[in-house]
Design the sequence.
DNA sequence: AACAGTCACAACCGCTCCAAA
DNA sequence: CTTTGGAGCGGTTGTGACTGT
């Protein structure tokens, strides 16, 4: 096969020996890695630069934390994944000492199955209907199920509107799966803070787990309050909608299908609510930040009956350093949509 | 004891992004 | 502007340990 990055060189592949590790550690600690492509030569390794980089980043860096994930870390992964989807590198940034590879492996080997056993779609964090769940569980039982078609079918719809242009559906955009969420008029996706604080135009901002695809705009359901099904933070998808004109932040909308195995979240599912965000958003944000000071993360996730704020609160809490995992000092700027 | 199946994790592959030439 | 190469990322595969039969 050969590596594209070093096809002409003879490179060793497979597991790294302790000797190779030593060489790489000595070289990087004394000289820095510089250009990774030159590392193998300078370090006396018959590896490609890419392999050296990966070995260093995922295994040899001194700041890496080894060992199994704590339940706290697991919860962080689940919660951040709900927002960011499979952005393992971004998720890993919230877990000091953990690598994207580690997070990804942990997700695929443990969390995914755990969520599915709870009747949750690990990609969207939505409840899987009983039928779909049985299909999913069958596939899980068969191991290595790779098709996502049953999941794709229930991906919530997502749209971005520009209110100033909104005269017909042509100004609404359809997004395919993996399309980043970007306000129509903004080059950069909004940060959570910016979304909470002060959208400066009439864009509709929607935040969602990027793994959740969006189909045709015509499929977008409307959610009368009585039918809006708000999930608890621990069971909902990230499906938020902020409208500058009426400032509604809604989330977790999904047709709810009670199913065995999901009873632990059923009660929460029925407590739908929509929270009004005042126009003076900056003021509100300050107030919320203050209110968050006393909020325990566990409480925010286990007890909050509405998703709408809980996730934002959670992140704000996390970023403000109030989180119980106090080895992490987040600043507000740490959490942005880095596409 | 031998074998097959499963699991977790390390490593690789292919792609995209981005800066420099 | 285009090209090129390095870096980074997510998906996938390979491998060794473990477990059940």
Sequence:
């Amino acid at each position: 096969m050969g590596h594209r990055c070093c096809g002409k060189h003879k490179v060793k592949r497979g597991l790294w020996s302790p000797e190779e590790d030593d060489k790489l550690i000595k070289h990087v600690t004394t000289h820095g890695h510089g250009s990774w492509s030159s590392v193998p030569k300078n370090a006396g390794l018959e590896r490609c630069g890419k392999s050296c980089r990966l070995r260093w980043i995922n295994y040899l860096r001194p700041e890496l934390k080894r060992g199994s994930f704590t339940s706290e870390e697991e919860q962080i992964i689940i919660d951040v994944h709900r927002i960011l989807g499979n952005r393992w590198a971004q998720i890993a940034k919230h877990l000091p000492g953990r690598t994207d590879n580690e997070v990804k492996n942990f997700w695929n080997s443990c969390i995914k199955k755990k969520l599915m056993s709870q009747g949750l779609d690990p990609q969207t964090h939505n409840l899987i209907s009983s039928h779909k769940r049985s299909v999913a569980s069958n596939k899980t039982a068969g191991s290595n199920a790779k098709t996502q078609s049953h999941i794709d079918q229930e991906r919530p719809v997502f749209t971005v509107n520009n209110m100033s242009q909104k005269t017909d559906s042509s100004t609404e955009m359809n997004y395919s799966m993996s399309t980043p969420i970007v306000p129509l008029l903004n080059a950069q996706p909004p940060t959570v803070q910016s979304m909470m604080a002060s959208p400066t135009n009439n864009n509709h901002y929607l935040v969602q787990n990027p793994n959740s695809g969006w189909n045709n705009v015509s499929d977008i359901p409307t959610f009368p309050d009585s039918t809006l099904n708000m999930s608890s933070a621990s069971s909902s998808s990230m499906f938020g909608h902020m409208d500058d004109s009426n400032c509604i932040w809604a989330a977790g909308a999904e047709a709810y299908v009670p199913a065995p195995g999901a009873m632990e979240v059923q009660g929460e599912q029925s407590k739908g609510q929509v929270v009004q965000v005042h126009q003076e958003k900056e003021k509100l944000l300050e107030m919320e930040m203050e209110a968050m000071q006393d909020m325990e993360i566990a409480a925010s996730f286990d007890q909050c009956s509405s998703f709408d704020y809980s996730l934002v609160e959670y992140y704000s809490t996390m970023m403000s350093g109030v989180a119980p995992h106090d080895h992490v000092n987040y600043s507000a700027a740490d959490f942005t949509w880095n596409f």
User: Anything to note?
Assistant: Residues 1-62 of chain A form a domain with the Arc Repressor Mutant, subunit A fold (CATH 1.10.10.60). Residues 1, 3-4, 13-16, 50-51, 54-55, 58-59, 101-102, 105-106, 108-110, 143 of chain A lie near DNA strand B (CB under 10 Å from a C1'). Chain A is about 40% helix and 5% strand.
